[in-house]
Amino acid sequence: MVKNEIADMKVGVVGAGAIGGICAAYIKKAGFDVQIVGRNQDHAKDIMMEGITVSGIKGSLNVKMDAVSRIEDMAKDRDIVLLGVKATEMIEAARKMIPNLKPEATVVSLQNGFCEDALGEILGRERVIGCVTGWGATMHSPCKLEMTSSGDFIVGNIDNREDSRLARIQTILNYVLPTKISNNISGDLYAKLIINSCITSVGAVCGLYLGEMLSRKGVRQIFFKIMEEALEVAKALDIQVEVLAGKLNYYEFLENDGFWADFKRHLSLRAIGFKYRKLKSSSLQSLERGRETEIDYLNGFITANAERYHISTPVNNQVYQMVKEIEQGKRKISPDNLDLILSK
Question: What is the domain partition of the chain in residue ranges?
Fold first, then answer.
């Protein structure tokens, strides 16, 4: 159960999707005072009366908790708020949260992409804690959620400074999955941004599962170029990109030229593609539902900063533009789009 020194911490969860809902369930099970913002009145009522049911790799549980239907109705006594909405909804959600946040409240960003700077502009940088969510989940229905893959959280001060709040956040999130404190959260966030800019964004333009994508040499070359361009931008931003999930060191992965180095790179991506062959891009799923993607905080973050520092990023530019055209109904999702990217 909850340790005495943080037992009275009150937690808010904004975003009752797969990630937010699972976090809320495990934190509530640990004994914390948790309030979650549901999608609507019926959803909030179901959470309170029937509970959130979680299945998956950690087993099953059902947890009832306090819930409201609007961000504006969130309790004003929350010490920590987990912001679990998609990046496309993040700005609006943050603005609605402001009147309900007490001065010392902390907001933990659970979004994909590099969102912390944008959140800091609205909420104040001192409020925002960066977080890498390194595990997977899916929603089968509003109150039935599944943790589909294990992993961890990485949390850190967005200015990469020491921060006494991190230990408390770590303790709370440890009840969901193991949580690490980073002294370079910018580098950790950027490491995940790069892989998402490959897998999620390229998957969105071609409509293929990851296994199908990485069985193609051309797609593997696209991934390499996205990584290379992203590292150039990271250098300009003075970001030292961390090793992804303790395994992928982008600098070492790309550093050598020649036949054998290139062969090993291709072989590594083929292996990833085989292991996660049925992985479907989250951005592709958003497009199929007629929703916007998080591209502005993935490849869009790379291209915007590339323009700022006069860096050429033709492949990221092309992927970004294609996703935008698909969102606007000006382009179809098709493997044929891959040939156009390769022509850059």
Answer: 4-183, 187-342
